[in-house]
Amino acid sequence: MQISAAPLIYILIFVAVVVLVEGLYLTVFGKSISLNSRVSRRLALLEKNQNREQVLEQLRKEMTQHMNARGIPLYQMLASKAQKANIAFTPQQLIGIMGLVSVMALVALTFGTGAALGVRILLSVGFGVGGVYFWVNKKAKKRMSMLEEQLPDAVELMVRSLRVGHPFSSAIGIVAKEVADPLGSEFGLIADEAAYGRDVSESLREFAKRMDNQDLHFLAVAVTIQQQSGGNLAEILEGLAKVIRSRFKLFRRVKAITAEAKFSGLFLSGFPLGVLACIQVFKPDFYDPVINTEYFVPGALFVGVFLTINILFMRMMVNIKV
């Protein structure tokens, strides 16, 4: 039986691209850029550079640079994800990394496979762009998930600070010191902007808009209303914390209920692709008798279109909005 290692080589090259980008990211910016770090990136930067204004400027640049670069051709599809992931690479650097890993993938394909030059170039570009997009998307999902989980605890910490007599700006500063990333650096940025004279509610609104998170919008609106009409901010935030925590529990419950359906959809969508990969590995000449017929290409396109529709519909069925 003839066995082809080409599909396995393609998978390994894609995984290598993702690992290479992650390794380069940690090498350039250090361990503090990782969301698993106990110390927030802002505090780590302040420890290295005592100039608070320079740290503020650097963090503001990192947090806004991707949405400001949406005019770059084809970068708009990545800008929103990179913004939510707070990728410290500049858009130009991220595009350069795409080109670098594409070249490396082309070299690996040249030595590892016998595909035609045009196919190798197409695959290498796909691995470079797709690998970086996959990495950024994964970072964005992880960061947003951690932020949503940290938010109710952070609001409750602000409530306790307000009740012992601290002003709201000081309560935000306490959250920045006590809470890890991603929320620690974000609230630290708001605290620094407030120290330089910016309105806190304006900073919160910009933060909520940048993250496109409904709970953050609730927080920004609550603070704005309290500033305009007065009232006990501690009680308002305490009620908001309960609402956010209840919403978070509801999301987790829905996620648990739909887990089986999501797995079924993932299996039904991935099974045909897995079978195709197995055929290419264990019997690469399986389609040789029909590959030159006039119906092969239309048939392959027909199957590909319906498989894509199947994946989209499966995703729509299990992606329940609450």
Automatic annotation (TrEMBL):
Keyword Cell membrane included in the entry's annotation: yes
Alphabetized UniProt keyword annotations: Cell membrane, Coiled coil, Membrane, Transmembrane, Transmembrane helix
Domain of life: Bacteria
InterPro entries tied to this protein: T2SS_GspF_dom, T2SS_GspF_sf, T2SS_TadB-like_N
Pfam families per UniProt: T2SSF, TadB_TadC_N
This protein's record includes keyword Membrane: yes
Main location: membrane
Type II secretion system protein TadB-like N-terminal domain location: 1-143
Gene3D superfamilies hit by this protein: Type II secretion system (T2SS), domain F
Localization per Swiss-Prot or TrEMBL: Cell membrane
TM segment ranges: 6-28, 94-111, 117-136, 263-283, 295-313
Membrane topology note: Multi-pass membrane protein
Coiled coil feature spans: 42-69
Domain Type II secretion system protein GspF residues, every copy: 155-277
Cellular component, GO annotation: plasma membrane
Protein name stated in the entry: Type II secretion system F family protein
Source organism of this protein record: Paragemmobacter straminiformis
Phylogenetic placement of the source organism: Bacteria, Pseudomonadati, Pseudomonadota, Alphaproteobacteria, Rhodobacterales
